Every structure is written in C-alpha cells, then in structure tokens.
Amino acid sequence: MVGRGELTDAAWQRMAPLLPGVDGRGRPWRDHRQVINGVLWRLRTGAPWRDLPERYGPWQTVYERFARWEGDGTWAHLLEQVQVRDDSAGAVEWTVSVDSTVSRAHQHAAGARKKGAAAGDELEDPARSAARQALGRSRGGLTTKVHLACDGRGLPLAVVVTPANINDSTVFDTVMGDLRVPRTGAGRPRRRPDVVLADKAYSSRAIRQAMRGRGILTVIPERADQKANRLRRGRAGGRPPAFDRELYKSRNVVERCFGRLKQFRAIATRFDKLAHRYRAGVHLASLILWLREPTQDPLSDNA
User: Fold this and answer.
1) Beta-ladder partners of 217
2) How far is the C-alpha of 193 from the C-alpha of 191, rounded, in Å?
3) What DSSP character marks residue 181?
4) pTM of the complete model
5) CA–CA separation, 37 vs 7, rounded Å?
6) How far is the C-alpha of 172 from the C-alpha of 164, rounded, in Å?
7) Strand-strand pairing, 217-219 and 156-163
8) pLDDT digit string (tens) for 223-247?
9) Other Cβ atoms within 10 Å of 242 Cβ, number
10) Helix (H) or strand (E) holding 260
11) Would you report the helix, strand and coil content of the chain in percent, each value rounded to 5?
C-alpha cells in the first residue's frame, strides 16, 4: 500500500532503472524505494531527520543516502534523465519561463561551519558564510532565492540557488547556462529554447541582446523607468523592444510550478544548513513533478 506522498508504482517503474545498482562491494543497499520514500517524507513535512518514522528504516541511513547522492550528483542526474526521456518523446515544450521565488530560512539553517574547520579554529565572517550558503538577510530575516527555468508545461529544467538579496537579472545567464538536456543518441545536448518568457525584473538590453545573438525569441515587458528614459531621449532612445502580449500570458506556468514545489514544506521553508543540500531537495521535488506528468514511451507505436 502506497502511503501519502510516497512514490506511486508508476513513478517507481520510471525511476528504478535509473538508480545506482549493487557493485558487489561492501554491504548491500537498503531498499531504494523505502529510503527515497523516507527522504520524500522529510521533504514533504520539513521535520527533523531524527523524527523519521520507523517504517522508512534508520534515519541515519536515509540521511546518509540523501547526502551521498547529493554529493555524487545522483539527484541531479535522475532529474536530467527524466528530462531526456520526455524530450526524446517530444513531450518537452521549449517555450521556457524564467523566474525566482524567495523561501524563508529557518533559524536552524544558519551557522554552517566552514568545510575543514574544527572546534576552536578561527570563525569565518558571518556575512561571508551566509552568502556562501545562499542565505541573504532581509526585513523578515534570513532568506534564500530559488531561480527556475521551466518548460511550457511548468516542469523545471534548470535550478539555481542564491541568497535572496541577489538581483534576478544578474543570475539569468547562470540559469540559462544550466539549461541542458542531453540527447538519447548522437548530438550535442539541447541548450537553446525556442522562446524565453520573463517578467520586468529581467528587462535589460544585455539580456535581450544575448538572447538575440543565440537566435532565441524573448518576451519580456519593458520597465516603466526604461520606457520613460527611452521616450525622453527621443530618436536617440531607439525603438521599443518587441513584446507579444498573448505569448506572455503563458508565463504563469512558472508561478504554478513554484506553487507545486512549495507544497514540499522543506522547500517552502529552508531547514538545511548547506546550500547544496537544499538545492538537492529542490532537484528531488522537481523530479517528482516530472514523474507525475504523464508521458509517452518514445519506443511505443503511439509516440
């Protein structure tokens, strides 16, 4: 019987072939499905690892598996593989929406020790440490920002985590650089969407020129101050940027995607001290969204 929030049989059938297998060395893995369901329980509830129910096995085993697969890139690889499978079936919609959302950081998320530092060593500057762990301070306290590029169905393609006081437009190139879906056969990974939709926070000449240079249509509304400055300069201000209002209406898929991701309480509120652990949680939550999406088998007759 599948419990609430656990992997369904259909999702498990899609994920199981992608998981690491037994290499014949050391102790055998504890059941992958049981452990992943334990990680999902913690991600969904936001509870401490020590409070993990016994049905998922020892909490240390579940945490160590989560940390190990974060360290070797397994969670990111799983997300990439389901993207590859959908793209090979022609299911990925390459009208990409880019945006960010802020997640409040719990007080337990602060205070990560610098790697290699031991008790009694000189402490790292708190502001520098917070920035290194993607924690920014605002009126509400410590916060983290999740930058996302999602396809036309509202499924995550690229994830970047920064302190919340970082301007969205400065991270745009990083988000687009992380957008990468390999091919099932020969050929380079696909990195170029057909269209990029973004809100006024990304309205800049540099972004529009960069996308134009790559042959990507951008649909970004012009900010009021930019419009006023352009009109003030008259002919020297140039023409207004092209803007397709009807196409822009599709941008709300990224907002809906954030809403679905934040149904996982450990995403809506950050409890992880380390930025890469929090990002791994976002990768796993994104993977679950992809697994919930029905798709065609590229080898079937109806594909």
Assistant:
1) 195
2) 7
3) B
4) 0.89
5) 6
6) 14
7) unpaired
8) 999 889 888 888 888 888 889 999 9
9) 10
10) helix 252-261
11) 45, 15, 40
